[in-house]
Amino acid sequence: MSELLVDFITSLDGHASGEGWPGFWGLEGPEYLAWLGEQPESTHLMGANTYRQMSGFAAGEVPSGQDEFRPEEEASVDELTRASKVVFSSSIEEPLTWANCTLVRDDAVEAVRAMKAGGSGLLSTIGSLSLCRSLLRAGLVDRFRVVMFPVITGATGAERIYDGYPDVALEMTEHRTFDGRIQLVEYKPRVLEHPPLFAPA
After folding, report:
1. 116: containing domain
2. CA dist 62 → 32, 46, 82 (Å)
3. What residues does the Bacterial bifunctional deaminase-reductase C-terminal domain cover (predicted)?
């Protein structure tokens, strides 16, 4: 059976990106980049918006406000291009232009449930906030990993990750600091039916 990893990089205040900020908020370091390069092979899951953005980067579209990709960003996009990817969308038309992508139009939750039951490798999300939220609500997420960068984007932050989430209990399974400033935490999540003080009589 496959494991499902929800994987986020965030600002300290829980934004997935910030207007005017480069990838990794410009704060990646050698330890973090080396760790990225050591990650096991996985099949990446994403929704339509993430596919459009990342396939655009792969085709050479530079992020807004930049003249060119930084080497770290280019390496990250190249690695994703080589990886196996599944896109869940009812609006994107085939053929997909990004290499190694499979389009799934069926319900994402049921499709991932079947992928987990019938597979043996690692499934991991990239971006795709609404997809991750749906998979978590359905109880399909085995590992929930967050890499927090030391910046608060209160004025420019976009894509608030945890809006619309259920209450979730998190059992920490790993933690690590990279380059003296970037914090990784990984949890085993458990969706709660109610908070402790609202237990039914």
Report:
1. 3-198
2. 23, 20, 19
3. 5-183
